[in-house]
Amino acid sequence: MRNAFHDQLDSIFDDLAAICADVEVAVTRATHALFDADADLAEQVISGDAAIDLARERVEDNALYLLSLQAPVAGDLRIVVAALRMVSELERMGDLSVHVAKIARLRVPHRAVPAGAEQTVGRMAEVAEAMVRRAGQIIRSRDVDAAAALRADDEEMDLLRRTSFTELLGDDWAHGVEAAVDIALLGRYYERIADHAVSVANRVVFVVTGQYPTSD
Amino acid sequence: MRNAFHDQLDSIFDDLAAICADVEVAVTRATHALFDADADLAEQVISGDAAIDLARERVEDNALYLLSLQAPVAGDLRIVVAALRMVSELERMGDLSVHVAKIARLRVPHRAVPAGAEQTVGRMAEVAEAMVRRAGQIIRSRDVDAAAALRADDEEMDLLRRTSFTELLGDDWAHGVEAAVDIALLGRYYERIADHAVSVANRVVFVVTGQYPTSD
Q1: Could you say which of B77, B88, B169 has the minimum Cβ distance to residue A181?
Q2: Residues 1-30, chain B, touching A (beta carbon < 8 A)
Q3: pTM (2 decimals)?
Q4: Closest among A189, A195, A186 to A215, alpha carbons compared
Q5: ipTM at complex level
């Protein structure tokens, strides 16, 4: 049965989807800044993060207003708390995009990622971007099945992270310590973006079904 | 005026302080495992994390119960939400200790941190441990002034992180790529533990004063 609570909750989910779209832009731009050694684009990601932080505050205020106005009981209460967690995670994903952009900026006019590591890091970036996009679709569609697919993407990310370590710790690594450290940290940032995307999707599953998905 | 809400809130804060004490043990043990190349101790940190996760769930359940039972209005509502965020952050600090322990375990029987980097990484570990301990004291005492001191500790951590990068990216670095990557990631983990400790302390300030501290 629909009521004022659910209408307001829909509005909060619309805002979450909008923030997720902004995060997707941030991840994509940070990756372009990284691979094109584009300082201006990196700056856009860094300065653009304030808008994501502000949007987060607005969603939090709306969620708290909903809690205080409607005083929802157990199940609905947990849904609002899930929304609060989702917005925290989306904000963190924005912060992690800033970290990627800062590494890009630090190495301009050079590229932080040397040719020998381009494939693995590039794929990590692609997977992370796709996962953020999919998380946004899941927020909009409340498609529980799509969340399972997202967990499969996350397994590819874990595999890529291991491949990346093998590359940069192997005897063939010819790009020195600085590039290795940059790539290890970039890998960590993309991996965390992916983790948060899965977590956001899992919270949508919780909102729809009342249960968090078991790992599969 | 004291009431049932505040009594239950005190109980939640007692639980938060207990979790913070567990996190402190985890950070200390992970650091010992790292510097003593002690696989057994690393395993204790890794397997011990499940208890922190469980304690987190208990606090969340209590906080949600408090919300549903008391339906607190604006100010009190934000306090409960702050408690929910604190417990999430404490759990993340536990996860980060596990990451440190896993690097320690990966390099046994060797030490991940070579002698040339011992001082800076060791100091990062000390600062992180001290910050977790102080965060626990702040949760227990609700001492708003101590939270400001914690933010000063965090500045030392930022400085140590920069020093560490200078060391491992300098011409004098003689310990290879693997140690550099380990130290860059360890630095990230200790830095994040420190960030979360500051955030937990800032939330206590909010609970006591109704305002988040401005950066000083």
Answers
A1: B169
A2: none
A3: 0.93
A4: A195
A5: 0.89
